């Protein structure tokens, strides 16, 4: 149907949480912020998350979004296989 509408259909691998390029930028940074930390309770976790997001400049999110096409293409070029960075 999309081709009948003259839309470009882009190839993409099936969704996999460990390959989601949209998650990679944010969650890798969050993981790094948690490295070596022990959060004693739910409140400590909430406080850490609030600070993490509040401290990120707008450019952090913009850069992550702008890298998506490149990350997506890497997954396509790698036939959907896991990519180690």
TrEMBL record:
Coiled coil: none annotated. GO terms for molecular function: DNA topoisomerase binding; double-stranded DNA binding; histone H3K36 methyltransferase activity; histone H3K4 methyltransferase activity; single-stranded DNA binding; single-stranded DNA endodeoxyribonuclease activity. One of its GO terms (cellular component) is condensed chromosome. GO terms for biological process: DNA double-strand break processing; DNA integration; double-strand break repair via nonhomologous end joining; methylation; mitotic DNA integrity checkpoint signaling; replication fork processing. InterPro entries: RNaseH_sf, Transposase-MT_Hybrid. This is SETMR methyltransferase. Keywords: Methyltransferase, Transferase. It comes from Acromyrmex insinuator. The lineage of its organism: Eukaryota, Metazoa, Ecdysozoa, Arthropoda, Hexapoda.
């Amino acid at each position: 149907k999309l081709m009948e509408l003259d839309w470009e259909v882009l190839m993409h691998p099936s969704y996999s949480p460990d390959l989601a390029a949209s998650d990679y930028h944010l969650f890798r940074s969050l993981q790094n912020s948690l490295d070596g930390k022990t959060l004693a309770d739910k409140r400590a976790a909430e406080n850490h998350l609030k600070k993490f997001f509040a401290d990120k400049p707008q450019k952090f999110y913009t850069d992550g979004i702008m890298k998506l096409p490149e990350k997506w293409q890497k997954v396509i070029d790698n036939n959907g296989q896991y990519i180690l960075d």
